[in-house]
Amino acid sequence: MGDESTISPKDRFLTVYGRKPVLEALADAGLRVDKVILADTARGPGAAEIQRAAKAAGVPVQRASEHRVKVLAGNGKQDQGVLADVVAPRMRALSAALADRRPPSRVLLLDGITTPANVGMILRTATAAGLDGVIVPRRGVAALDPMVVKASAGVAFRAPVLRCGSAREAAELLSEAGYGVYALGASARTTVFDVDLPQRAAFVLGGETAGVGPEVGELVTEWLSIPMPGDAESLNVSAAAAVLAFELVRRAR
Protein backbone atom coordinates (compact mmCIF):
# COMPACT_ATOMS: atom_id res chain seq x y z
CA MET A 1 0.00 0.00 0.00
CA GLY A 2 2.89 2.33 0.68
CA ASP A 3 4.19 1.95 -2.89
CA GLU A 4 2.59 4.76 -4.86
CA SER A 5 3.13 2.88 -8.13
CA THR A 6 0.67 0.19 -7.04
CA ILE A 7 -2.19 2.58 -6.29
CA SER A 8 -5.44 1.79 -8.08
CA PRO A 9 -6.52 4.17 -10.88
CA LYS A 10 -9.45 5.05 -8.59
CA ASP A 11 -6.86 6.50 -6.21
CA ARG A 12 -5.47 8.81 -8.89
CA PHE A 13 -8.49 10.02 -10.83
CA LEU A 14 -11.96 11.38 -10.20
CA THR A 15 -14.50 10.64 -12.90
CA VAL A 16 -17.07 13.06 -14.29
CA TYR A 17 -19.81 12.12 -16.73
CA GLY A 18 -22.21 13.96 -19.01
CA ARG A 19 -21.47 16.31 -21.90
CA LYS A 20 -21.47 19.62 -19.96
CA PRO A 21 -19.30 18.44 -16.99
CA VAL A 22 -16.80 16.81 -19.36
CA LEU A 23 -16.56 19.97 -21.50
CA GLU A 24 -16.10 22.06 -18.34
CA ALA A 25 -13.28 19.79 -17.16
CA LEU A 26 -11.58 19.98 -20.57
CA ALA A 27 -11.86 23.79 -20.58
CA ASP A 28 -10.46 24.22 -17.05
CA ALA A 29 -6.76 25.07 -17.41
CA GLY A 30 -6.23 24.17 -13.75
CA LEU A 31 -7.26 20.55 -14.27
CA ARG A 32 -5.43 17.74 -16.04
CA VAL A 33 -7.74 15.32 -17.79
CA ASP A 34 -6.17 11.90 -18.30
CA LYS A 35 -8.63 10.64 -20.89
CA VAL A 36 -12.14 10.95 -22.26
CA ILE A 37 -14.22 7.84 -22.92
CA LEU A 38 -16.97 8.22 -25.50
CA ALA A 39 -19.65 5.63 -26.19
CA ASP A 40 -19.48 4.17 -29.68
CA THR A 41 -23.15 5.09 -30.01
CA ALA A 42 -22.40 8.79 -29.37
CA ARG A 43 -22.71 10.64 -32.66
CA GLY A 44 -23.70 14.07 -33.93
CA PRO A 45 -22.78 17.63 -32.85
CA GLY A 46 -22.45 16.79 -29.13
CA ALA A 47 -19.89 14.03 -29.71
CA ALA A 48 -18.04 16.19 -32.25
CA GLU A 49 -17.86 19.08 -29.76
CA ILE A 50 -16.30 16.83 -27.14
CA GLN A 51 -13.79 15.44 -29.61
CA ARG A 52 -12.78 18.97 -30.67
CA ALA A 53 -12.41 20.09 -27.03
CA ALA A 54 -10.36 17.01 -26.15
CA LYS A 55 -8.08 17.54 -29.16
CA ALA A 56 -7.58 21.20 -28.22
CA ALA A 57 -6.65 20.14 -24.68
CA GLY A 58 -4.36 17.36 -25.90
CA VAL A 59 -6.46 14.68 -24.21
CA PRO A 60 -6.88 11.23 -25.79
CA VAL A 61 -10.42 10.03 -26.58
CA GLN A 62 -11.19 6.33 -26.26
CA ARG A 63 -14.28 4.67 -27.68
CA ALA A 64 -16.16 2.06 -25.65
CA SER A 65 -19.53 0.36 -25.73
CA GLU A 66 -22.50 2.24 -24.35
CA HIS A 67 -22.78 -0.38 -21.60
CA ARG A 68 -19.11 0.02 -20.65
CA VAL A 69 -19.52 3.79 -20.31
CA LYS A 70 -22.54 3.28 -18.04
CA VAL A 71 -20.58 0.83 -15.86
CA LEU A 72 -17.61 3.20 -15.59
CA ALA A 73 -19.85 6.19 -14.82
CA GLY A 74 -21.79 4.20 -12.22
CA ASN A 75 -24.95 5.94 -13.33
CA GLY A 76 -27.43 4.51 -15.78
CA LYS A 77 -29.30 7.66 -16.74
CA GLN A 78 -27.15 10.75 -16.86
CA ASP A 79 -23.81 9.86 -18.42
CA GLN A 80 -24.95 10.92 -21.95
CA GLY A 81 -22.43 8.47 -23.36
CA VAL A 82 -19.32 10.30 -22.20
CA LEU A 83 -17.05 10.49 -19.18
CA ALA A 84 -13.63 11.88 -18.32
CA ASP A 85 -10.98 10.79 -15.83
CA VAL A 86 -9.58 13.89 -14.15
CA VAL A 87 -6.26 13.74 -12.29
CA ALA A 88 -6.63 14.51 -8.58
CA PRO A 89 -3.19 15.95 -7.76
CA ARG A 90 -3.54 15.91 -3.97
CA MET A 91 -4.92 12.38 -3.73
CA ARG A 92 -2.53 9.78 -2.35
CA ALA A 93 -2.25 6.79 -0.05
CA LEU A 94 -2.58 7.46 3.68
CA SER A 95 0.54 5.38 4.28
CA ALA A 96 2.52 7.66 1.94
CA ALA A 97 1.26 10.78 3.74
CA LEU A 98 2.22 9.37 7.14
CA ALA A 99 5.70 8.49 5.85
CA ASP A 100 6.31 12.07 4.70
CA ARG A 101 9.02 14.19 6.28
CA ARG A 102 6.18 16.52 7.31
CA PRO A 103 3.10 14.33 7.82
CA PRO A 104 -0.34 15.95 8.05
CA SER A 105 -1.18 17.42 11.45
CA ARG A 106 -4.99 17.60 11.24
CA VAL A 107 -7.02 15.04 9.30
CA LEU A 108 -10.61 13.86 9.10
CA LEU A 109 -11.42 10.14 8.89
CA LEU A 110 -14.73 9.13 7.29
CA ASP A 111 -16.27 5.98 8.79
CA GLY A 112 -19.41 4.56 7.19
CA ILE A 113 -20.58 7.76 5.48
CA THR A 114 -22.48 6.38 2.51
CA THR A 115 -24.31 9.44 1.15
CA PRO A 116 -22.34 10.97 -1.74
CA ALA A 117 -23.70 14.45 -0.96
CA ASN A 118 -22.24 14.31 2.54
CA VAL A 119 -18.85 13.08 1.34
CA GLY A 120 -18.74 15.83 -1.30
CA MET A 121 -19.68 18.57 1.14
CA ILE A 122 -17.12 17.34 3.68
CA LEU A 123 -14.40 17.45 1.01
CA ARG A 124 -15.43 20.99 0.10
CA THR A 125 -15.46 22.14 3.74
CA ALA A 126 -12.14 20.50 4.63
CA THR A 127 -10.45 22.00 1.57
CA ALA A 128 -11.87 25.45 2.35
CA ALA A 129 -10.64 25.16 5.95
CA GLY A 130 -7.14 24.18 4.80
CA LEU A 131 -7.12 20.83 6.59
CA ASP A 132 -4.22 18.55 5.75
CA GLY A 133 -6.25 15.54 4.70
CA VAL A 134 -9.57 13.74 4.47
CA ILE A 135 -9.21 9.97 4.74
CA VAL A 136 -11.74 8.31 2.43
CA PRO A 137 -11.49 4.51 2.80
CA ARG A 138 -12.21 2.37 -0.24
CA ARG A 139 -14.66 0.23 1.74
CA GLY A 140 -17.61 1.41 3.84
CA VAL A 141 -17.74 4.97 2.46
CA ALA A 142 -19.44 6.35 -0.65
CA ALA A 143 -17.23 5.92 -3.71
CA LEU A 144 -15.55 9.05 -5.06
CA ASP A 145 -17.91 9.16 -7.99
CA PRO A 146 -19.38 12.01 -10.06
CA MET A 147 -22.13 12.56 -7.47
CA VAL A 148 -19.45 13.32 -4.85
CA VAL A 149 -17.70 15.68 -7.28
CA LYS A 150 -21.00 17.47 -7.97
CA ALA A 151 -21.79 17.82 -4.24
CA SER A 152 -18.34 19.31 -3.66
CA ALA A 153 -18.98 21.94 -6.37
CA GLY A 154 -15.88 20.64 -8.16
CA VAL A 155 -13.58 21.15 -5.16
CA ALA A 156 -13.16 17.37 -4.84
CA PHE A 157 -10.65 17.49 -7.72
CA ARG A 158 -8.27 19.52 -5.56
CA ALA A 159 -9.14 18.08 -2.14
CA PRO A 160 -6.37 16.52 0.00
CA VAL A 161 -7.86 13.01 -0.20
CA LEU A 162 -6.00 10.18 1.54
CA ARG A 163 -6.88 6.59 0.61
CA CYS A 164 -6.70 3.32 2.51
CA GLY A 165 -8.64 0.07 2.68
CA SER A 166 -10.94 0.66 5.64
CA ALA A 167 -11.59 3.10 8.48
CA ARG A 168 -10.23 0.54 10.94
CA GLU A 169 -7.00 0.25 8.96
CA ALA A 170 -6.71 4.05 8.95
CA ALA A 171 -7.27 4.28 12.70
CA GLU A 172 -4.56 1.65 13.28
CA LEU A 173 -2.08 3.46 11.03
CA LEU A 174 -2.83 6.78 12.73
CA SER A 175 -2.46 5.33 16.23
CA GLU A 176 0.84 3.68 15.32
CA ALA A 177 2.05 7.02 13.93
CA GLY A 178 1.34 8.76 17.24
CA TYR A 179 -1.86 10.58 16.35
CA GLY A 180 -4.59 11.29 18.85
CA VAL A 181 -7.76 9.74 17.42
CA TYR A 182 -10.90 11.69 18.34
CA ALA A 183 -14.43 10.68 17.44
CA LEU A 184 -17.53 12.83 17.33
CA GLY A 185 -20.39 11.53 19.47
CA ALA A 186 -23.45 13.37 20.80
CA SER A 187 -23.11 12.17 24.41
CA ALA A 188 -19.42 12.99 24.97
CA ARG A 189 -18.73 15.33 27.90
CA THR A 190 -15.65 16.92 26.29
CA THR A 191 -16.51 19.25 23.42
CA VAL A 192 -14.68 20.19 20.25
CA PHE A 193 -14.30 23.68 21.72
CA ASP A 194 -12.50 22.75 24.95
CA VAL A 195 -10.44 19.62 24.14
CA ASP A 196 -6.65 19.90 24.44
CA LEU A 197 -5.20 18.59 21.19
CA PRO A 198 -1.77 17.06 20.55
CA GLN A 199 0.41 18.15 17.66
CA ARG A 200 -1.15 15.53 15.39
CA ALA A 201 -4.81 14.64 15.57
CA ALA A 202 -7.36 12.72 13.52
CA PHE A 203 -11.10 13.25 13.84
CA VAL A 204 -13.49 10.42 13.03
CA LEU A 205 -16.85 11.31 11.48
CA GLY A 206 -19.33 8.44 11.65
CA GLY A 207 -22.09 7.32 9.31
CA GLU A 208 -25.44 9.00 8.93
CA THR A 209 -27.38 6.48 11.03
CA ALA A 210 -24.99 4.30 13.04
CA GLY A 211 -22.29 6.90 13.82
CA VAL A 212 -18.72 5.76 14.44
CA GLY A 213 -18.51 1.97 14.19
CA PRO A 214 -17.21 -0.26 17.01
CA GLU A 215 -14.11 -1.37 15.04
CA VAL A 216 -12.89 2.22 14.96
CA GLY A 217 -14.48 3.17 18.29
CA GLU A 218 -12.19 0.87 20.27
CA LEU A 219 -9.15 2.77 18.96
CA VAL A 220 -10.47 6.22 19.86
CA THR A 221 -8.37 8.34 22.23
CA GLU A 222 -11.30 10.51 23.29
CA TRP A 223 -14.89 11.20 22.25
CA LEU A 224 -15.94 14.77 21.52
CA SER A 225 -19.33 16.42 21.20
CA ILE A 226 -20.66 19.62 19.65
CA PRO A 227 -22.74 21.44 22.28
CA MET A 228 -26.31 21.95 21.10
CA PRO A 229 -28.39 24.00 23.54
CA GLY A 230 -31.31 24.04 21.10
CA ASP A 231 -33.99 21.44 20.53
CA ALA A 232 -32.23 18.99 18.17
CA GLU A 233 -30.55 15.67 18.90
CA SER A 234 -27.81 15.83 16.30
CA LEU A 235 -26.35 17.59 13.27
CA ASN A 236 -26.01 16.27 9.76
CA VAL A 237 -22.51 14.79 9.49
CA SER A 238 -21.38 17.38 6.92
CA ALA A 239 -22.59 20.19 9.19
CA ALA A 240 -20.72 18.63 12.13
CA ALA A 241 -17.61 18.44 9.95
CA ALA A 242 -17.95 22.16 9.17
CA VAL A 243 -18.21 23.10 12.86
CA LEU A 244 -15.14 21.01 13.64
CA ALA A 245 -13.10 22.18 10.65
CA PHE A 246 -13.60 25.86 11.40
CA GLU A 247 -12.95 25.40 15.10
CA LEU A 248 -9.55 24.07 13.99
CA VAL A 249 -9.15 27.17 11.77
CA ARG A 250 -9.97 29.38 14.76
CA ARG A 251 -7.37 27.62 16.89
CA ALA A 252 -4.71 27.94 14.21
CA ARG A 253 -5.24 31.71 14.12
What attributes does this structure have?
single chain; 253 residues; alpha/beta; seven-stranded parallel beta sheet; four-stranded mixed beta sheet; 9 helices; disordered N terminus
Strand content range: 15-25%
Order of helices and strands: EHEHEHEEHEHEHEHEEHEH
What is the straight-line distance between the termini?
35 Å
- Silhouette: elongated
Count of beta strands: 11
- Which regions are unreliable across 5 or more consecutive residues at pLDDT < 50? 1-6
Tally of separate helices: 9
Q: Biggest sheet, open or closed, and with what strands and sense?
A: 7 strands, parallel
Structural class: alpha/beta
- Please give the oligomerization state of what you see: single chain
User: Average pLDDT value?
Assistant: 91
Major sheet: arrangement of strands: 5-8-7-6-10-9-11
Question: What does the radius of gyration come to?
Answer: 20 Å
Helix content range: 25-40%
Write structural notes for this entry.
The chain is of the alpha/beta class and 253 residues long. Helix content is 34%, strand content 20%. It has nine helices and eleven strands. It has a seven-stranded parallel sheet, sandwiched between helices. Strand 6 (106-111), helix 5 (116-128) and strand 7 (133-135) form a beta-alpha-beta unit. Helix 1 packs parallel to helix 2 (44-57) and helix 5 (116-128) runs parallel beside helix 9. It is elongated, with a radius of gyration of 20 Å. 41% of the residues are buried. The model is unreliable at 1-6 (pLDDT under 50).
